[in-house]
Amino acid sequence: DAGVTQSPTHLIKTRGQQVTLRCSPKSGHDTVSWYQQALGQGPQFIFQYYEEEERQRGNFPDRFSGHQFPNYSSELNVNALLLGDSALYLCASSSRGWDETQYFGPGTRLLVL
Amino acid sequence: AQRVTQPEKLLSVFKGAPVELKCNYSYSGSPELFWYVQYSRQRLQLLLRHISRESIKGFTADLNKGETSFHLKKPFAQEEDSAMYYCALRYSGAGSYQLTFGKGTKLSVIP
């Protein structure tokens, strides 16, 4: 099991563009969470998807949206990119139940110019 | 609101010396606390969580609700402990799934 995988590893965009990041959860996991990690900061929760629906959302604007597919993989979409969106975007997967330990992917580093 | 504070950005200790990474939280309910670690060029991984009360790689952490702290300790630091450490909190009630992270502490173990 490769664990949580994310693509692409790096991405460069310009202001105003749109970006889509992808995540495949660890085998056996059905829940995906997305986090944004700015330089020198801890990860910040964007939202979590379970059963193809957004289950909880952090303090991020509507420009950030997501999707979960029937195979549990997920996408994070960011519209109208701002310079401040430059960050490492982390995906974490977990299995619904009493444990729900989150396992993290390697991240996608997004640079907005 | 949930908040996690890690007061030290960088902590340097000599090999064999004791280590304590501080974590304080603010939350009025019953939190779940975690320590995550990120070694160089590796992904963020769970080190330990307070409900399991395990010792992983010689590290322990005790939840002190009176002081709202969850400090990470190890009696004798090893060079391979050099990494970035993040304390995280999750509200344990129904309907809350997000992890709230501190800003992290970089531990450097000097040979």
In short:
The complex is a heterodimer of chains A (113) and B (111). With 113 residues, chain A is an all-beta fold.
Show the helix and strand layout:
The complex is a heterodimer of chains A (113) and B (111).
Chain A: E1 5-7, E2 10-13, E3 19-24, E4 31-37, E5 44-50, E6 53-57, E7 64-68, E8 74-78, E9 87-94, E10 103-104, E11 108-112
Parallel strand pairs in A: 2-11
Antiparallel strand pairs in A: 1-3, 3-8, 4-5, 4-9, 5-6, 7-8, 9-10, 9-11
Chain B: E1 3-5, E2 10-14, E3 19-21, E4 24-26, E5 31-38, E6 45-49, E7 60-61, E8 72-74, E9 83-91, E10 100-101, E11 105-110
Parallel strand pairs in B: 2-11
Antiparallel strand pairs in B: 1-4, 3-8, 5-6, 5-9, 7-8, 9-10, 9-11
Features:
heterodimer, A: 113 residues, mainly beta, seven-stranded mixed sheet, four-stranded antiparallel sheet, 0% helix, globular, B: 111 residues, six-stranded mixed sheet, three-stranded antiparallel sheet
Report on the structure:
The complex is a heterodimer of chains A (113) and B (111). Chain A is built from no helices and eleven strands. Chain A is mainly β and 113 residues long. In chain A, strands 2, 4, 5, 6, 9, 10 and 11 form a seven-stranded mixed β-sheet that branches. A four-stranded antiparallel β-sheet of chain A has the order 1-3-8-7, with no helix packed on it. Chain A starts with a strand and ends with a strand. The model of chain A has no long low-confidence stretch (mean pLDDT 94). Chain B is mostly beta strands and 111 residues long. Chain B has no helices and eleven strands. The radius of gyration of chain B is 14 Å and the shape is globular. The termini of chain B are far apart. The A-B interface holds A 3-4, 31, 33, 35, 40-45, 48, 55-56, 58, 90, 92, 100-107 and B 4, 36, 43-46, 49, 86, 88, 95-104.
